[in-house]
Specification:
- By secondary structure, the protein is mainly α.
- The protein is built from 15 helices and four strands.
- The longest helix is centred in the C-terminal third of the chain and has 33 residues.
- The termini are far apart.
């Protein structure tokens, strides 16, 4: 009896110690924050982006745009847990790709930990990035791409373009090894999606009537609502990328909001000066431009830098949308390249200029005495552009072979894809 009592007392005394060891392995505060961040980023695609892109598309293609956004996220979700996560974050192979040891999440269970959070939470968080990246590509080609071709393209592109890019930067690949800074997806998400969208748009060809007839958005109200939802979800995107509930996450949250607001104001005033009309669509687009540009820099820059980054992003975004695509004649339907590609490039370069070692130790940019960082950022941008452009070109060629062409027929395009492909209408037009 005395022995049992002694063992019981010992167990009680050791209980707090065992709990402390568990807390060192998994931090419940960090875990809760990343679960919330995952939900925020998830909302950005099937809700925020679907509304944002749907409202910008023509009324006869609104539902098709929503459907292609939804199916992209669904496909990415399955690809990621079956083989995508392993290719992106599995054991490094020559700095280029992850191994296949985690296919079907093999070897990852409820007890597996990454940093201070369960690995399963990390898997889900990264899944949302894959889903939104491929969905962003859609913005360049709505109104004219086959639904079946989009499905095949999504499967191939996530596998052979997104997964290697994520590995290069975040999974132990060569880009991270040379010191490229990309806090939440400048290269991996925005430059990647923007360049892919541009290549796909050029290979697909212009819409019927492009440049000859007016093509009005179906609902600027939906687009504005989508922009607000994306802004809200972006806090999970950027602040969540710290993978901890700490001061850097708080700073990332602050600069994200600041850059978005400044981007919106900069776009509005640039448009106001250019056309004498400050449009709601311009405000919504400026919000996204500011968010895109701050994404690679969010965990590395301070408040003054965020103001500059957002200001330049708003002006750059406006001129790329209003001038650049018309100058070169490509049909980037909803300006995926103009906003995500151009502003993503600016954000990656700005990270090399403004990265502040007082925020993240070891991350110093040009104005903090490290000009080499700007060169590294430039190398990472050029490498991303080359890889994504060539890789997407190949993916489109393969998709074209597998689906007997990637563009809808002329009759369906004129009638509208909502009725021609889905047999539905978003709303009645009297």
């Amino acid at each position: 009896m005395k022995t049992k009592v002694a063992l019981g007392l010992l167990a009680i005394l050791l209980l707090p110690l065992s709990t402390a060891f568990a807390a060192d392995a998994i931090d419940t505060g960090d875990t809760a924050w990343i679960i919330v961040s995952t939900a925020l980023v998830m909302m950005m695609t099937p809700a925020g982006l679907a509304l944002f892109y749907g409202g910008m598309s023509r009324y006869k293609n609104l539902l098709n745009t929503v459907a292609m956004t939804l199916v992209a996220y669904c496909l990415a979700s399955i690809i990621w847990v079956v083989w995508g996560y392993s290719l992106a974050f599995g054991p490094d192979v020559a700095g280029l790709i992850g191994g296949i040891s985690h296919i079907f999440l093999n070897g990852i269970d409820v007890n597996h930990v990454s940093g201070s959070i369960p690995t399963l939470v990390f898997v889900l968080f990264q899944l949302t990035f894959a889903g939104i990246t491929v969905a962003l590509v859609l913005g360049a080609v709505v109104d004219r791409m086959k639904f079946s071709a989009w499905i095949v393209f999504t499967i191939l592109w996530v596998t052979v373009i997104y997964c290697p890019m994520a590995h290069w930067v975040w999974g132990g690949g060569w880009m991270g090894a040379i010191g490229a800074l990309d806090f939440a997806g400048g290269n991996v998400v925005h430059i990647n999606a923007g360049i892919a969208g541009l290549v796909l748009a050029i290979m697909l060809g212009k819409r019927i009537g492009y440049g000859k007839e007016a093509m009005f958005p179906s609902s600027v109200t939906l687009t504005s609502l989508g922009a607000a939802m994306r802004w809200f979800g972006w806090f999970g995107f950027n602040a969540g990328s710290q993978l901890a509930a700490d001061g850097v996450a708080a700073s990332a949250f602050l600069v994200t909001n600041t850059s978005a607001a400044m981007g919106a104001l900069a776009w509005m005033f640039a448009e106001w000066m250019g056309t004498q009309k400050p449009t709601v669509l311009g405000l919504a687009s400026g919000i996204v431009a500011g968010l895109v540009a701050i994404t690679p820099a969010a965990g590395f820059v301070n408040l003054p830098a965020a103001l500059v980054i957002g200001l330049v992003a708003g002006v750059l975004g406006y001129f790329s949308v209003s001038k650049l695509k018309h100058r070169f004649g490509y049909d980037d339907t909803l300006d995926a390249f103009g906003v995500h590609g151009i502003c993503g490039i600016w954000g990656a370069l700005a990270t090399g200029i403004f990265a502040n070692p007082a925020i993240t130790e070891g991350a110093a940019g040009l104005i903090y005495g490290n000009p080499k960082q700007l060169l590294i950022q430039a190398i990472s941008i050029v490498a991303t552009i080359i890889f994504v452009a060539i890789g997407t070109w190949v993916v489109v060629l393969v998709t074209r072979l597998l689906t007997n062409g990637i563009r809808v027929d002329q009759e369906s395009e004129i009638a509208g894809l909502d009725s021609a492909l889905h047999g539905e209408r978003a709303f009645e037009v009297g």
